[in-house]
Amino acid sequence: MNVERFGDISKITLPTTFSVGDVNVYVVKGDRLTLVDAGVKTKASWEALVYGLSQLGYAPKDLEQVVLTHHHPDHVGLLDFLPDGIDVIGHKYCANWLSRDESYLKEYVEFLRALYLQFGLKEVEFPLSQIGATLKVSCEQSKLTQVMQEGERLFGMDEWTVYETLGHAQSHLVFFREKDGSLLAGDHVLATISSNPILEPPLIKNAARPKPLVQYNHSLKKMLELPIHIAYTGHGTEVKDTHELVNRRLARQHERAMSVYEMLKEKPMTAFQVCQQLFPAVYQKEIALTLSQSVGQLDYLQEIGHIEAQMNDEGVLYFVPL
Ligand SMILES: [Zn+2]
């Protein structure tokens, strides 16, 4: 049994190939039968979805639309296996990822390559190959059919309001239902782990690089303004004390950044050096994630005016306390 029911919201838990473990998708019966998110594109995940739907009396062909919280592989992969013609709704940033637009992906790799060099990484091919591996379980022939943005009523689920919550992903949206304080939170709020602010290219080509942790903090604070009763999350259990959790996460992140600040007071460092020091045991295995996390702390410290970035002759950035 991989299904839990919460009134008109049903949670189906699906296996993934990632260290985060299972992913949660939700079936919501609004004006249209909606699936919120779709797990990784593997046989095991598909079978778990079909089984979960059957527990609810549905088959995949009964689904009328999929609403996406964001474009990461563990939330979109199974779109490729769903019946043709199903509506797919999400942030416009998802579009290039769902169809796996080749020229876009090339730009993405170039974007990361340039950043990694600036951050002091010498062997940039290795982390780039890790990204290729995660895309294997994403979708590649799907299409975003409807774009949603902040403040709109969610298509086919008109009790729900859309909030843009960039940070974990440049496409992240959450959906809030005022009448009972339900939040479909995706990976914006997770019960036991803090959500990773992942480095991704800007929505608008050649715009400044997004600072995902700074965005994430801003998006977390947005949640404090909503009377959230329960948050249905992308991984793990529901969150019943969202405001408390948000405040805890913000405080913890500030502490983490301040410990990076202390490290930089000893000597200026590159982002990669910070990463090695913060994550000595895992940085090689999870370089993209740990580097994103480290850059996040550095972006935050810059934002609050504690450090600045200085570029050396080789184009590498050193972070210096002020
Ligand atoms: Zn996820």
UniProtKB/TrEMBL annotation:
Residues 22-235 form the Metallo-beta-lactamase domain. It comes from the Bacteria. InterPro entries: Metallo-B-lactamas, RibonucZ/Hydroxyglut_hydro, Sec-metab_biosynth-thioest. PANTHER family: ENDORIBONUCLEASE LACTB2 (PTHR23131), METALLO-BETA-LACTAMASE SUPERFAMILY POTEIN (PTHR23131:SF4). This is MBL fold metallo-hydrolase. The lineage of its organism: Bacteria, Bacillati, Bacillota, Bacilli, Bacillales.
